[in-house]
Batch of 2 targets.
Target 1
Amino acid sequence: MTVTGVQLQEYLAGLDYPVSREDLIRWGQENGASTEVLQMLKALPAEQFDSPAELGEALGTLA
């Protein structure tokens, strides 16, 4: 199963930016993200994201 942008947005809704990669992982764990989603978050190239658009771009490079 592949993770879609919509699934990621469901897990990451309500985040305050800027947000660190570690905070994203923690947020996903607390909100029931699947193992696949958590692996994607752990693979993100940047340490911090200043906006949803910046996070979206980084996630796009993983797909």
Target 2
Amino acid sequence: MSLKNERRTRGRGEAKRVLVVDDEADIRELLDLTLARMGLQADCVGSLAEARRMLTGQRYQLCLTDMRLPDGEGLELVRHIADTVPDLPVAVITAHGSAENAVSALKAGAFDYIAKPVSLDQLRGMVKSALELPGPDSGGDLCGEGGLLGESTAIEQVRGLIDRVARSQAPVHISGESGSGKELAARLIHTLGARRDHAFVPVNCGAIPENLMESEFFGYRKGAFTGASEDREGFFQVADGGTLFLDEVAELPLTMQVKLLRAIQEKRVRKVGATGEEAVDVRVICATHQDLKVLVEQGRFRQDLFYRLNVIELRMPALRECREDIPMLARHILDRLARAAEAKSPPLTAAALAALQGYPFPGNVRELENVMERALALMAGDHIDVADLNLVPFQLAGVAVAAAGGTLQDHLDQVERQAILDALKQSNNNRTAASRLLGVTFRSLRYRMARLGMNE
């Protein structure tokens, strides 16, 4: 079947329209036929100039463009659409194995990418996801219950970035201190995007034994190893169509980093004991409190994997950077805890609020929640005052550090070093046992000791 008119209209009423931009006639025909079978209208053109002309006179729900065109690069079209029609998702078609082009397109604002030779199953899945994106005015509540609370400039900036990132399939790296809300941000990105009706699968990479990682991530076939009595799906298969959240991704050993990189690039995984691969449609969001760039320089994290995961970086601010939000957060947490206990939420005195705003909160929002829960349980009267917060020891330690000319990080390092020394003493210098006492993985303990110069 030939395309006598590549911009033809199929007369299907209000069918959604897709703009296809590719200089190869056979690719245009393949895409046109595939989209038609999905009930979509396709306008097919072969150059950047024709694409720009079509965009001025017609509204589209999706644009598919090749990266190499006779009068320019597909990236130019991605940027043009981002500037002129920001609500239009753009997916790019890249040459097989061209990871650099794919990442460049995602960084420029592309919704997703697909590699040649085009897999029709992957194409249909990508198109379906793009068309399921919520409209610009129909997103979820980023500020309400379960959202990201706060009115500080830092929180407003994070909310704005989450809203934009949710309309893409690009991998996201969320950085920030422990307790700053990295998983909450990942869940919001998932909830506000096209994958909201599919699974959100959180994985703590530091909690999985190294010898089980491959089978946990990719699944296994019956009989693949001793104890494999039946087929089992891995994290990638469970998250198919949805989002895989890799918390503490820096804890992955180098051997697993190689396999994760391939799964992300090829969008295919192989179960342990299987002979063939299977396609998976997963958006990967990762998080860590460690500095991945430093780990790359130290040779402990693969540069190519960092390049793939860090397409979009979202930094969660520490609570001490949003002090003006602390009163609102404290009251919100108290209200939630009181509702759960079927009790009346007690007020916070002005002095208690001032003490909270002056406290450094090294544990961030998670620590604030602990402080509020303890205060609610132990308060002496019908309101929460400074004494109920039990912050004095921490404040005095902070004053001592400041007086000595140190920083908050110096103080935290000192506390962490002493906790490790105590655990090692209690376990007779058995690091495995010490890691259990501290509630961290062996790899995490080893990293912390190296960072603090305790391995000598």
